[in-house]
Automatic annotation (TrEMBL):
The keyword Nuclease applies. The gene is rexo5. GO terms for molecular function: exonuclease activity; RNA binding. Residues 1-11 have a biased composition (Basic residues). This is RNA exonuclease 5 isoform X1. Transmembrane segments: none annotated. Residues 17-36 have a biased composition (Polar residues). It comes from Clupea harengus (Atlantic herring).
Length: 786
């Protein structure tokens, strides 16, 4: 527990006071909404040796569930998300029809994306709608509900979800600054609170800080609701302030039915709002905690800012984000009647005292006992979750006999609970934004909120307005998809093959001239020293024999040009060069961008290792973080080595290090760590002919119906695509840091953004082969996406 010099502690750190050295009972975590002191900011990590292993959509859903729901669900097994409690939400961005192939083919256009993301993972192809699959994914639990431990199913009760099972001390229930902001409390420095008066009290509270109940009654003026009566009750239950207040503006409606205020009552009142503000400041001690029911309304009516508050409407939470009336809580919990129908209007001193007693009761009993004692009469039975898919039907709660026994006998099985309904149950429904089919306007009556937007700009504008009020946002950006709608239906497939061909052509080198006796086996023996080969083909139609060699990875082609040029093969010196064609004219600039990729800043590619001492060979230049061996070719090995420092990389690549490396050839890594090969397997792309052009296989084109594609339209789309990619790159919500995921296969890009408490971060997903990028740029919370 964090201490300060005067023996007091920050209220938003105090929940750690009881749990910092003890394990939680029943496997239930403290709520993620409580801001606890943890070491360092939230971060995503994955072992370097496993970055190349593809993840599935269920793996991705598992990560999102853990990010949004915390330790009530299983931690993802394929990665680690550190300090999850500091996350405030997740944003998923889907780029329609943009694939991983597009990302790497138009790599120079994605300047923001490749600069900001420091990790990528490959996502396996997934059928169906990605958003619906995520929202309908079954929850994976950290523990198992059994008849011996039925209370563990209480995890989904809104009170338990927020506060956990442990009984905490008073300061644990004081709202954090983030919770106050989310619930519209007036805050110092907020644009709409510039004229508000701050009580000047400090934000350090102890478990012995005094509680003061506060309630106000309002009337309606031309400026809205204004205060007409204020009551303050001290810790002993005594009313220390009960004042009538004259509104500054003419009264339009006294709201007598609720306020009890009449025209005659205010006729001789001269007390102004400023007078009441001064009295409150004088009456409240330095570490006073104000208690009220929907206290944000009272403080706004008073135009006052106070840092330490407990709101009973947020203590006794209802499902789906609803709130109980103070009258209901008083009847059920305190067994007393307030706001009687026989009396005209409410008594604010009575309401303030009721809120004070409700807060004391909750703090003394603890969340578990409060739920156990009042589950049936207050919440109407056990927490339930609809188990239906999108637009499906929900279950009807059966008649209950015993609150705890009913947890095992009613409701859907625990394995059928899904992610989207779980968020809805917490009062934080997911938000879908984009060009959604069949949706003309936004709707909040379904399992998650969906809003159709006419353009990507509208999507981002809607996100800017609503991102802070949703734990999960799903965005659909469709600029490229709209471009494709104007083309022939088969153009997408044909264009993807063309892009794959362009990527593969960068891994191709020409070797020659060769001796007439030279065979493919001889060429393989020479060229495999630089990396794994995909294919070797001899060109006998040329004046002299040459070979077309394609490497699995781009590094192989780079090393071949650097190291094999001038080598002798069967007594003939050979020249190694890259092909020159329409798709490879900018290869040098492209390679430079890859050299600058932050993902490979501390990674080198090593080939030609013929012994098992690779680790020892690399460690002589500096400590390594990880080594990933690539598939072997006989005894020769190829590997990626990640060092702890960039200095070790420079030393390894220095020409003076060659004697220490022996037969090992090294170069700076170009292939992102998540790729096993430079391009995914796909239908064979056109081969370069003996000159430098590209020959189309017309029979294959006819088989897939590509012959009828308008070539002029195709050329126009090709020209516009780079610009569209550049615009999409600029549209990512950069203010919430992102970790991208680029999917494998021919689907769309998915981008996941983790928003932090106090800072913001995110994860993104790009399809083609899907590929995941993670970046560590943190920005202050409150900045909306551009």
């Amino acid at each position: 527990m964090a201490k300060v010099s005067n023996g007091k502690r920050k209220r938003d750190l105090s929940p750690a006071s009881e749990d910092s050295n003890n394990k939680r009972s029943n496997g239930l975590p403290s709520p993620p909404t409580q801001a606890l002191r943890t070491k360092g900011p939230p971060r995503f990590t994955r072992c370097f040796e496993h970055l190349h292993e593809a993840i599935s959509l269920s793996d991705l859903s598992e990560l999102l569930q853990y990010a949004a729901l915390g330790k009530t669900v299983t931690q993802p097994s394929w990665c680690r998300l550190h300090h999850q409690r500091k996350l405030s939400g997740v944003t998923v961005t889907i780029l329609d029809d943009v694939t991983q192939v597009h990302f790497y083919r138009y790599y120079p256009q994605f300047k923001n994306l490749r600069r900001r993301y420091t990790t990528r993972c490959t996502l396996l192809p997934c059928a169906g709608d990605v958003s619906s699959s995520i929202l309908n994914s079954a929850l994976s639990y950290a523990d198992t509900v059994t008849s011996e431990n039925p209370k563990s199913d209480l995890r989904w009760h809104p009170v338990i979800r927020k506060f956990g099972l442990k009984t905490r001390r008073l300061s644990a229930y004081v709202l954090t600054a983030e919770e106050m902001s989310k619930n519209k409390f007036p805050l110092k420095g907020a644009p709409d609170c510039k004229a508000f008066v701050c009580t000047g009290k400090d934000d350090h509270v102890t478990d012995n800080s005094p509680l003061y109940g506060l309630d106000c009654e309002m009337c309606l003026t031309k400026m809205g609701q204004e205060v007409t009566r204020v009551s303050l009750v001290d810790s002993s239950g005594q009313c220390v302030l009960d004042e009538l207040v004259k509104p500054q503006n003419p009264i339009l409606n006294y709201l007598t039915r609720f306020s009890g205020i009449t025209k005659d009552m205010l006729a001789r009142v001269t007390t102004q709002l400023s007078d009441v503000q001064s009295k409150l400041i004088q009456l409240l001690p330095q570490d006073a905690i104000l208690v009220g029911h929907s206290l944000d309304c009272d403080l706004r009516a008073l135009q006052m800012i106070h840092p330490n508050v407990i709101d009973t409407s947020l203590l006794y939470k209802r499902e789906y984000g609803g709130r109980f009336k103070l009258k209901v809580l008083a009847e059920v919990i305190l067994k007393k009647e307030i706001q009687s129908e026989e009396r005209k209007g409410h008594d604010p001193s009575e309401d303030a005292l009721a809120a004070l007693e409700l807060a004391r009761y909750f703090i003394s009993k603890g969340p578990q006992q409060v739920v156990d004692l009042h589950l049936q009469e207050l919440w109407g039975g056990p927490p339930r979750l609809p188990d239906s898919p999108v637009n499906g039907s929900s279950h009807t709660s059966p008649t209950l006999t015993s609150p705890l026994a009913s947890l095992m006998s009613s409701g859907p099985p625990i394995s059928r609970l899904t992610f989207g309904p779980a968020l809805l149950k917490m009062g934080q429904p997911a938000l879908q934004l984009g060009r959604l089919a069949g949706i003309d306007s936004h709707s909040s009556n379904e399992l998650w909120r969906r809003q159709s937007c006419s353009s990507d700009r509208k999507v981002l504008e809607a996100l800017r307005r609503q991102v802070q009020s949703h734990s999960l946002c799903l965005l659909q950006l469709s600029s490229y998809a709209q471009l494709l709608t104007h083309t022939h239906p088969s153009y997408t497939h044909r264009n993807l093959r063309k892009l794959m061909g362009g990527l593969r052509e960068m891994c191709v080198v020409y070797v020659g001239p060769l001796s007439p006796e030279c065979t493919e086996r001889d060429v393989k023996r020479l060229c495999s020293s630089c990396g794994a080969l995909r294919s070797v083909r001899l060109l006998s139609s040329t004046h002299r024999v040459h070979a077309v060699v394609e490497y699995e990875l781009l590094e192989g082609a780079v090393l071949a040009v650097e190291r094999l040029n001038g080598c002798e093969l069967l007594g003939c010196p050979v020249k190694v060069q890259r092909p020159v064609g329409e798709l490879t004219l900018d290869t040098e600039e492209y390679l430079y961008d890859l050299f600058e990729d932050a993902l490979n800043e501390r990674v080198i590619y090593a080939t030609g290792v013929t012994t098992d001492d690779l680790q020892m060979t690399m460690d002589q230049f500096g400590p390594t973080e990880g080594v990933r061996l690539l598939p072997q070719q006989k005894k020769r090995k190829h590997a990626f080595v990640k060092y702890h420092s960039t200095e070790a990389v420079e030393v390894t690549l220095d020409p003076s290090a060659e004697p220490s490396l022996g037969q090992v050839k090294v170069c700076r890594a170009l292939t992102p760590p998540h790729l096993c090969t430079w391009v995914p397997d796909a239908p064979e792309t056109p081969h370069s002919n003996g000159e430098n052009g590209v020959t189309e296989d017309r029979r294959d084109r006819q088989e897939v119906g590509e012959e009828d594609v308008d070539e002029e339209l195709e050329a126009e789309v090709d020209m516009k695509t780079a610009g569209v990619m550049r615009k999409l790159d600029s549209k990512f919500p950069w203010r919430v840091s992102t970790w991208p995921v680029l999917p494998r296969g021919q689907t769309e890009v998915n981008c996941l953004t983790f928003r932090l408490k106090g800072t913001q971060r995110n994860i993104q997903n790009t399809d083609g082969r899907k590929d995941t990028h993670l970046h560590d740029d943190l920005t202050e919370k409150g900045h909306a996406p551009p």
